[in-house]
Design brief:
The protein has helices at residues 28-32, 37-48, 53-56, 63-70, 81-88, 92-100, 111-137. By secondary structure, it is an all-alpha fold. It starts with 27 loop residues before the first helix and ends with a helix. It has 2 domains: 28-100, Orthogonal Bundle (434 Repressor (Amino-terminal Domain)), CATH 1.10.260; 107-141. It is built from 7 helices and no strands.
Length: 141
């Protein structure tokens, strides 16, 4: 049964239930020293400055299951890893996992970023040529 008094508003935004995580730099060596992936999850959560509830509620993880995850008695749901890193504001679990597999992380440039970089390089080259021509005209070169 639908309400005759309340109507859904399509353009209405959503109010976030959590505050943004505090961005705290973490030395990669601290991340690499974590003995397990669960420890890396725990470190990421601790570094966020958020209360546990502000992490597990948006992830739709039960409080008792969250406690077991942090204690290493349960596994973190891998399909929620990206959302977890968005919530906590860091990529500690990803960094730990890459290091544990003997790999490193490289930030990939999107197509737009690649085009912007190429355009910036072109603009710098034109500016250098322009300066050279001005110097020649002024007799400095």
């Amino acid at each position: 049964m639908t309400s005759k008094l309340l109507r859904a508003v399509d353009s209405q935004g959503e109010i976030p239930l959590t505050k943004p995580a505090q961005q705290q730099p973490v030395d990669p060596e601290v991340v690499f020293k974590q003995p397990t992936f669960s420890a890396a999850i725990r470190l990421a959560a601790n570094c966020s400055g958020l209360e546990e509830k502000e992490i597990y509620v948006p992830l739709k993880i039960d409080a008792s299951h969250w406690t077991r995850i942090l204690n290493g008695a349960a596994h973190f749901p891998t399909d929620k890893l990206e959302f977890f890193m968005d919530i906590v504001g860091n990529e500690i679990p990803l960094l730990w996992l890459a290091h544990a597999r003997g790999k490193g992380l490289v930030l990939l440039l999107s197509e737009a970023e690649r085009l912007l970089k190429a355009e910036q390089e072109r603009a710098e080259k034109l500016e250098d040529e322009n300066k050279l021509l001005r110097d020649v005209l002024q007799g400095k070169a």
